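Severity: low
Component: inverse-folding endpoint
Summary: output formatting inconsistent between runs
Steps to reproduce: submit the following structure tokens with default settings.
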């Protein structure tokens, strides 16, 4: 698959991730998240490299797990694709926030602290 097609895949993945139209799932591998509900047994995942945290790799896999398209982009590359690197960084961040339910946990922490404050005001 050409780099242009994979770059288009990354662009559409970023758009869908930032608009909340994708359901991300944990994969069991560190810093790797997969798109849930892919058709035809396909798997699409984004991984942040373990030894270079500024390197990302999206992979499209077929039903048996074989990689059929990938693109590795990192800040340590001789000629880094800065647009793709930024897009993959944003995709990975969005996936992690969704899987870890960051927004929900922040809301629960705020609610807890507001309840504590309200209890202090009414009892004081």
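Observed output (run 2 of 3):
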């Amino acid at each position: 698959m050409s780099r242009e097609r994979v770059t288009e895949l990354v662009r559409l993945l970023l758009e869908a991730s930032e608009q909340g139209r994708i359901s991300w799932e944990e994969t069991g591998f560190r810093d790797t998240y997969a798109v849930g509900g892919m058709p035809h047994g396909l798997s699409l995942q984004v991984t942040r490299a373990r030894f270079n945290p500024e390197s990302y790799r999206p992979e499209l896999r077929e039903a048996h797990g074989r990689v059929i398209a990938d693109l590795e982009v990192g800040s340590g590359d001789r000629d880094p694709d800065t647009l793709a690197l930024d897009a993959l960084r944003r995709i990975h961040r969005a996936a992690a926030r969704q899987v870890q339910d960051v927004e929900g946990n922040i809301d629960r922490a705020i609610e807890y602290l507001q309840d504590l404050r309200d209890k202090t005001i009414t009892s004081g």
